[in-house]
Amino acid sequence: MLTIAADIDALARFGRALADPIRCRILLALREAPAHPADLAEELEISRTRLSNHLACLRDCGIVVALPEGRRVRYELADARLGHALDDLRGAVLAVEADRTCLDAEEKGCC
């Protein structure tokens, strides 16, 4: 059984993964199917360097895994339940208030 601290850590890692729009786009793309970095960079229209930095963050958070395929690497969600969690979270947030926009902490004067 997980402790409260482990639960908080897991949610914080998921929150960190979702905290950046590019990482969200990567997760949504990988929810559809595993992909190679070059294909992801092209699909998301971002540089490979920028993509690499975001993939490293997602790996560090334990959200995606890199699987060697010969000389290439394929990325996928670390667990299929993450794809379902993304769908559930998106659906729940949209069900509450679909017309809301979350402002940046700086814009709101927070922290």
Describe this protein with a few key phrases.
single chain; 111 residues; mainly alpha; Arc Repressor Mutant, subunit A; two-stranded antiparallel sheet; 2 strands; globular; DNA-binding
Structure description:
The protein is mostly helical and 111 residues long. It has a single domain (4-93), classed as Orthogonal Bundle (Arc Repressor Mutant, subunit A). The chain has helices at residues 4-18, 21-32, 37-44, 48-60, 80-97, 105-108, and strands at residues 64-69, 72-77. Strands 1-2 form a two-stranded antiparallel sheet. A hairpin with a 2-residue loop joins strand 1 (64-69) and strand 2 (72-77). Helix 2 (21-32) crosses helix 5 (80-97). It is globular. GO terms for molecular function: cadmium ion sensor activity; DNA binding; DNA-binding transcription factor activity; lead ion binding. It holds the Pfam family HTH_5. Residues 3-100 form the HTH arsR-type domain. Keywords: Cadmium, DNA-binding, Metal-binding, Transcription, Transcription regulation.
